[in-house]
Each structure stands twice: as structure tokens, then as C-alpha cells.
Specification:
Layout: H1 3-14, H2 40-52, H3 58-70, H4 76-81, H5 84-90, H6 97-111, H7 118-121, H8 127-132, H9 139-149, H10 159-169, H11 176-186, H12 191-207
This protein binds a DNA duplex through residues 19, 49-51, 53-61, 63, 92-100, 103, 135-141, 144, 156, 158-160, 198-199, 201-202, 205-206, 210-211.
DNA sequence: CGCCAGGGCCTCA
DNA sequence: TGAGGCCATGGC
């Protein structure tokens, strides 16, 4: 299995995914390699989104982010000060709102040490380790922040990635670090590549590689261990 | 009605 | 270190 080839096939079918951020998004971006610089506010919004989307559909997260933006709460200092109850109400649409209100506050409180400057926080030596020390940030959320907000090449492994890879290779691998290592060792460490790749996995999982997969119509079935059995002979 | 979504924490072996 | 319970809304 060649990951680069897989990327090209997915990209040729689904095209640019243009994930993140929600606010102030560019309307037309011709290629995945030409993405504009993010503002500090957009970077913070991405961090919030990474936390809010834990086990939650993105549609519900967008609603919450728009609500927060209306109140000018894409702002770490303000999140620290707002009442937990009030914050939970604003993000109600994401589900798990009591937990996630705490998680957002924990993250923003961590930024206090950096005078609420996301850019200085992002400059710490072992940022991944520090992100993981924040309550509410696990490996996937940390890597999402590192990839989409910090824009450093950390491959994000989610449930979709595991499922698609399990079906393609025919081997189950639940270890996050091993799965991430697979991509890190076989792809150039390019944040924009990892960015689009992860988004394309999500898109493919929604279109074909669902829990109940639609193998017979899937364009990857010839090279997929699980999909091969659905090729008509 | 059931199932699932761009997971993580806590507890208990 | 791994399995299981818990968190909870909204779309289909």
C-alpha cells in the first residue's frame, strides 16, 4: 500500500477539502499548496474546533463556533472569564457541552502563562507534549491543533483513518502512534499534504467507507483487501 | 425508533 | 495497557 498514491486517488476524486477555519475563510483556493496565512484568531478558532468536534459531527460544531463568534468569544481571555454555565449554553449544539466547556476553559487557562498569545504558546519546544498535558486534549486533538492551527506536519489519526486503513490492508491496528508512524515514515513531512490527506480520509469514510461500507461502488476496491471480494467476476 | 458523528477522561482490573 | 462506562446534541 502506497500512501502517496492513495492520496492522489482520493484527491483526484474529491478535490480540495478546504477545512478550517470557519470564520474569515477564503472563497476560492486553487490548490492545496496555496493556502493563505492564518490570523491568530483563526488559529484559536481551529483549536476550539478541534476540541469541540471530539466524537461530534462537524455541522454541530460549526453552529457552536458561529455562536461563539457572534459574542466575540473566539478570545482566550474572555473564555477564561465567562461562566462555565454560560459557555456550555453557547456550545450546546456540540453535545457533551458540560465537559467541552471545561476543556475550552482549561485550554485557554493554559494560554494565560503565555499572556494569551497563541503564537508564543506555539513556540514552546515540545508543544505536543504540552498540549497533551491539558485536560481534554488527547493525541488526536493535539495533532489536529498541531497540523491545522500550528501548521506543522503531524498526521492526524482518527476513527476514519483506522477504519479505512484496516480495510485496505486487512490488518487491524489500534495503536495511535504506530498508525501515525506508518504515514510519517512513508510521506514527505508536508503540513499541507497531511492536512488534505486527513480531510480526504474523512470524506471517503462518509461517501463509501462507512461502518456499513459501500464497496461495490467504491473506486478503491481493486486495491482494498476488504473491497476485493466485491469485484464481480 | 436506533445509529452515528472530524474523542477523551476516569475507574478498575 | 486495555476494556468499559460516561458524556449529549442533531441529522438521518
Amino acid at each position: 500500500m502506497n500512501p502517496k498514491k492513495l492520496f492522489k486517488e482520493l484527491y483526484s476524486v474529491y478535490g480540495l477539502q478546504n477545512w478550517w477555519p470557519v470564520t474569515g475563510k477564503e472563497k476560492t483556493i486553487p490548490e492545496y499548496k496555496k493556502r493563505t496565512k492564518l490570523t491568530e484568531k483563526q488559529k484559536l478558532e481551529i483549536c476550539f474546533g478541534a476540541i469541540l468536534t471530539q466524537n461530534t459531527s462537524w455541522k454541530n460544531v460549526e453552529k457552536a463556533i458561529i455562536e461563539l463568534n457572534k459574542e466575540n468569544l473566539i478570545n482566550a481571555e474572555k473564555i477564561v472569564l465567562i461562566k462555565k454555565q454560560k459557555l456550555a449554553e453557547l456550545i450546546k449544539s456540540v453535545g457533551y457541552f458540560n465537559q467541552k466547556a471545561v476543556y475550552l476553559k482549561e485550554f485557554c487557562k493554559h494560554l494565560e502563562k503565555f499572556n494569551y498569545s497563541l503564537n508564543s504558546f506555539f513556540a514552546v519546544f515540545d508543544l505536543r507534549k504540552e498540549l497533551l498535558s491539558v485536560k481534554g486534549i488527547g493525541k488526536e486533538t493535539a495533532d489536529s491543533i498541531l497540523l491545522y492551527s500550528v501548521q506543522k506536519p503531524f498526521f492526524v489519526v482518527d476513527a476514519y483513518t483506522k477504519r479505512i486503513m484496516e480495510r485496505i490492508t486487512g490488518k487491524e491496528e489500534n495503536d495511535y502512534d504506530k498508525l501515525q508512524g506508518f504515514f510519517h515514515s512513508r510521506l514527505e513531512h508536508d503540513a499541507l499534504l497531511f492536512n488534505e490527506f486527513h480531510a480526504l480520509f474523512v470524506e471517503h469514510a462518509k461517501n463509501f467507507c462507512r461502518k456499513k461500507p459501500l464497496c461495490s461502488n467504491c473506486f478503491l476496491k481493486k486495491q482494498c483487501f476488504h473491497g476485493k471480494q466485491f469485484i464481480l467476476k
